[in-house]
Structure formats: C-alpha cells, structure tokens
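Dear Dr. H.,

I hope your travels went smoothly. While you were away I took the liberty of generating a structure for the chain from your last submission, since the lab meeting agenda had it listed for discussion. I wanted you to have the full record in hand beforehand rather than looking at slides cold. The sequence, exactly as received, is reproduced here:
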Amino acid sequence: MLQLSQSLLNRPVLSLRTGTTIGTVTTPIINPNNLKIEGFYCDDRFSKQQRILLYQDIRDIMPQGFVVNDQEVLSESEELVRLKDIIKLGFTLIGKPVVTQSKDKIGKVSDYATEVDSMYVQKLYVSQPLLKSLTSGSLSIDRSQIMEITNRRIIIADLLQATPVRATAAIV
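The corresponding predicted structure, in token form, is as follows:
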C-alpha cells in the first residue's frame, strides 16, 4: 500500500512490550542510490534525544503509529555503521528540483509516495512553477522514469511533448 510522506511523519512509535508511546517519528532517512527509506529519525520520549528507528524494526504501521517490539530498537547514529554514509549525506526529497535529460526544468518535489511493505519510494509528486501549473497542474513521476539522483537535482526521462494535430480535409 502506498502512503504519502506526510502520513508517515510526526507519528508516535508504540512499544508492544509496554503498550506505551516511546517516541515520535520526525524525519525519514532516504538512501539516494535506490530511493529506499532506511529508517526514521525519532525523538526518544525517555532520553529526550534524537534516535534512529530502522525500517526492519517496524512490526506494523497502524493509524495510531509505528509499532515496534520495545525501546531497545531505537539506536544512536554512531551505532549504525552500515548507514553512516547515508546518514552523513542528509538526503531529502522534498524541495529537490526535477529536470529532464534534455535540461527542461519541470519543478520541485512537493511530496512522494512510499510502498510501506518495502519502504521504497514509488512516486514523486512535482509542483510546477506558477505559469506552468495554471495550464497543466502538478506531475506524478514514477520511479521507473528517474534516470539520476544527485544532491542538487533529480533527472528524469524526457516527457512526451504534445504535438499539434492537423486537420486533414477529406476529398470525396
């Protein structure tokens, strides 16, 4: 099931063991190499520090929040050696400019949809500049259209351009 990014953020982290809230999800940790959410930054309710909740430690995502086994799944960033480089990048999707391979500016990422079972970002929602948005609205970009992701922008395959249709006169 796909969920928008805003529906995954600012939600409580619930412990199965104690039945209480142990933290609040604040920001996703996104791997720019494969657009996978590797985990989330959380505000730990007890230590009042920022911790990391890895996606594989999430037992379920319910309307009430993220369900985990217990407090022990919240890690400090120094403990996560394999994610060190991704955490250091601080990659974010929201606000990232989107351009085509032929250098046409499309707009900026305003939201994204994530498959919650695999935590892969499946769609990017791009808001266009004011003039373009009046004529065509916002765009939905599938992950298969993405060619390259850099720290500065997202490059997608060229969009189909509408070609004017010529009316031909039928000769009878």
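Two observations you may find useful: The longest helix spans residues 130-136. Helices lie at 5-8, 84-89, 130-136.

With kind regards,
E. W.
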